[in-house]
Specification:
two-stranded antiparallel ribbon; flat
């Protein structure tokens, strides 16, 4: 908006608004400000001046310093004389003019917009028309391009067909030319049998050997195919066939001569290490039977296959000098050195083969196969001589075990050789399969040899133990029968070290099973058969040991029975019998201890076998269904025989202990022990001498049982022994008569016995001896108090009835009639 000069009559001036004021970033506040800024500043100045005048002249100052405001009348008078907003009329006039100009501007803009719309509509119509014409032109252009592309494609196909025809014609011309040339050469070979002197220079020129070989092979193939297709019934074709047969014979002769000439040249170049010449000859020879003759000839002429000294050196390196016994460790070292040498040699040959032959993999396959089938096989045949199972070699010469160890070493080292050869390169040859085939004859009968070896080792060990036993017997001299029966020497006892040796043999055999058996089923079968051998060996060994210990118990029992005498013998005979009985008792105690040691070692041996099964055998059987369970069942069956022998022996131990207890009681128990005279002296509260001797004997002899037995076996044995001791004491006391002081002495004995059997940890036995203590009261109480003893314990009435009859006053006190009512009520 254009500015106007400032005047008092602003409303009379014309207001001019420009359209440009509304372009760009339009702001109504800016437009409004431009309209009123010419009027409002003067109003503000006047208002400021008015405010200053009122502040000085319009207020009164009081004497106390306060200003007094003017009165309302004064204010009203001032308002009439000066208007509050004097510029309002000018603003109204300005606003009206502005509105008029704005309306005019809108009309101008509307007119311009209308004109622009018309112009745009006209241009749009022209544009649409132009686009329609362009689309028609483009469609026509596309049609032209399609026709052109179709024409170009047709021309291209025609040109390709012409090119194919030209190429086919050229190929036919070339083939015809070659055929004519071949027919010419074929006629030369068809001239006369065996005549190769009149051939073209091509077939005798050494510089064109490759070309001659190629043509000779083509002629030979053509002639052989023609002969195969010929029908002899036609005379002409028969004549032709005979003619071609001459050509075939001449060609065969020429090819053989050429091949020999190339092989000779190849050998000469090989001697001089001329790899380029060797490669050239090998390439030409590859046209004859795919180069098989060249490959085989090269491999066969290697020094390690034709030098006899190499074979002898191999044997000396592995087996040592003739006449010496080779050990598996020495053989392992020898095989490692030999196989390393073979691998290095093959590696060197591989470098030459890669540089010379067009098909190096085929040559490497032949070379590796020849190494395994000739050099390795020759060595293994000397190293592994399969022994007879009927007449196996003696243990002094190593036995079957030496053969098996040699087989394992050779197999493992040869497998390593196969892996090394595979790393070097062996073409398409199945080197692992070839290696397996070298040992197939040995592996087929391996399980039988392994089981036979374990049996041979077991028998040799038993013979060794018997020899040691015989040697100890001879060195110790002859021992009296009475003493000899009680001696259980260490060589007769079960040895845990021997069982451990059995397990060690088996572990070694299992390692060989794992080495030779690649399939889980085969491995499980072999492991099961080998482990079954161990079960049989351990079962037989510990059973025999237990039976020997039982024989000692049986002999001791025979000694006891031999010296049982009647009552009417002389004093000298009785003394001799007593001495013999003491010796028999010592033999029984020694046999008892020996059997307990055998039982303990038997348990340790079984534990070793079970641990070995859990750690080493079970994991090899689990992959095959039922194998693990079957072996567990076999193990239980094998050990059942030993368990039966142990059970019988423990029963004999109880019999031995009870026999000695009865002997001690009979020898030491006096009638006065339980029927002491009534001499006014204080009763003896000590246990009887017989009781002391019996308890001392049991404490001494059962130490071996407490050490040897464990768990349920120990509990069952001590419970049975406690019951037998209880029964034996009851029977023993039936032989004596008791007075009250004797009853106290008996009760003291029962207490001593009860304290001892408490160490058995058998509640049922403890209860029986507690009842014995109550039962002893029948000898102590007065006759009239007997009936009260059974009120709390009616279970002892039957035994009490027998015991009461042993009272000294049984008849004098007429206890039978007095207690008859009690017995009748209890029955």
């Amino acid at each position: 908006m254009k500015e106007r000069s400032k005047s008092s009559s602003v409303s009379n001036l014309p207001l001019i608004l420009d359209i440009d004021d509304f372009k760009g970033e339009f702001s109504f506040d800016a437009l409004f400000g431009n309209l009123v800024n010419e009027l409002l500043p003067s109003f503000q100045e006047e208002e400021a001046d008015s405010a200053d005048g009122h502040g000085i002249g319009g207020t009164d100052v009081l004497p106390n310093g306060h200003v007094r405001a003017p009165s309302d009348a004064t204010k009203f008078a001032q308002g009439l004389s000066a208007p509050l907003f004097p510029e309002v009329d000018a603003l109204l006039s300005l606003f009206k003019d502005s509105c008029k100009e704005l309306v005019d501007l809108r009309k101008q803009i509307d007119g311009r917009l209308y004109n622009l719309k018309e112009e745009v509509s006209t241009q749009d119509a022209k544009h649409r028309k132009t686009l329609t014409e362009l689309e028609k032109g483009v469609d026509g252009l596309f049609d032209s391009f399609a026709r052109l592309d179709s024409r170009i494609s047709s021309v291209g196909q025609t040109a390709a067909k012409i090119g194919d025809h030209l190429q086919s014609a050229d190929a036919q011309r070339e083939t015809a030319s070659q055929t004519i040339e071949l027919i010419k050469y074929l006629m030369e070979f068809n001239s006369s049998p065996g005549d190769l002197m009149e051939l073209s220079p091509l077939f005798s020129d050494d510089s064109r050997v490759a070309e001659a070989a190629s043509i000779a092979q083509k002629l030979r193939s053509f002639a052989e195919e023609d002969i195969a297709r010929a029908v002899p019934s036609v005379v002409g074709s028969a004549t032709a066939s005979r003619g071609l047969e001459v050509a075939v014979a001449n060609l065969q002769e020429y090819c053989n001569e050429l091949e020999n000439r190339l092989l000779a040249r190849f050998d000469a170049a090989s001697q001089r290490r001329e790899l380029s010449t060797m490669s050239e000859c090998a390439k030409i020879l590859s046209q004859f039977n795919r180069g098989t003759s060249a490959m085989q000839h090269y491999v066969a002429t290697r020094p390690m296959f034709i030098d006899v000294e190499v074979m002898n050196s191999d044997t000396r390196l592995v087996l040592g000098n003739q006449g010496s016994q080779a050990s598996p460790s020495n053989v392992a070292r020898g095989l490692s050195s030999l196989y390393k040498e073979i691998t290095d040699t093959v590696r060197k040959e591989a470098a030459t083969i890669m540089a010379v032959f067009p098909s190096p993999n085929d040559v490497m396959s032949i070379l590796v196969q020849r190494v395994l089938e000739q050099r390795v096989t020759a060595l293994l045949d000397k190293l592994l001589v399969k022994p007879s199972l009927v007449n196996p070699p003696p243990m002094e010469e190593g036995g079957l075990l030496l053969y098996l160890r040699m087989l394992a070493v050779a197999y493992e080292k040869t497998q390593e050789l196969a892996r090394d050869l595979r790393a070097v390169g062996c073409g398409d040859s199945d080197v692992e399969g070839l290696t397996e085939s070298l040992f197939s004859a040995h592996k087929d009968e391996y399980p039988e040899h392994e089981q036979a070896s374990l049996g041979q080792l077991y028998q040799a060990k038993l013979e060794e133990l018997r020899a040691e036993s015989q040697k100890v017997s001879e060195s110790s001299g002859t021992i009296g029968r009475s003493k000899g029966a009680s001696v259980a020497s260490s060589y007769q006892q079960i040895s845990v070290a021997v069982v451990t040796e059995f397990v060690r043999w088996n572990e070694e055999a299992i390692s060989r099973c794992t080495l030779f058996s690649s399939q889980p089923a085969t491995l499980a079968a072999n492991v099961k058969s080998v482990f079954t051998c161990l079960l049989g060996q351990v079962s037989q060994y510990i059973t025999d040991g237990l039976e020997r210990a039982r024989d000692s118990l049986t002999e001791a029992a025979g000694l006891r029975e031999r010296f049982v005498l009647g009552t009417s013998v002389s004093r000298r005979v009785a003394a001799a019998a007593a001495s013999a009985a003491e010796a028999a008792a010592a033999a029984g105690e020694s046999s008892f201890r020996s059997f307990m040691v055998a039982v303990q070692r038997c348990g340790s041996s079984v534990a070793i076998v079970q641990q070995y099964f859990a750690n080493s055998i079970s994991r090899l059987l689990l992959p095959v269904d039922g194998a693990h369970a079957a072996s567990c069942e076999e193990m239980a069956t094998a050990m059942s025989t030993a368990e039966g022998a142990a059970y019988k022996g423990l029963q004999q131990c109880i019999e031995t202990v009870m026999a000695e207890v009865e002997r001690l009681l009979s020898a030491e128990q006096k009638a006065t022990d339980y029927r002491s005279p009534d001499d006014g002296m204080a009763p003896d509260h000590r246990p009887t001498n017989a009781c002391t001797r019996v308890v001392a004997y049991l404490s001494r002899v059962l130490e071996a049982a407490f050490t040897a037995l464990e768990g349920l076996n120990k509990q069952a044995f001590l419970t049975e022994l406690g019951n037998r001791l209880h029964k034996g004491l009851l029977n023993h006391w039936q032989k004596f008569t008791f007075n009250p002081s004797g009853g106290l002495r008996l009760k003291r004995d029962i207490t001593e016995y009860g304290e001892f059997v408490r160490s058995f940890n058998a509640p049922s036995v403890d209860e029986k001896f507690e009842l014995l203590g109550i039962l002893a009261n029948v000898f102590i109480v007065a006759p009239e108090s007997l009936s009260t003893l059974f009120e709390g314990t009616p279970s002892i009435r039957k035994d009490a009835q027998r015991f009461i009859q042993l009272r000294e006053d049984y008849k004098s006190a007429k206890l039978a009639s007095r207690l008859s009512s009690l017995w009748s009520s209890s029955s």
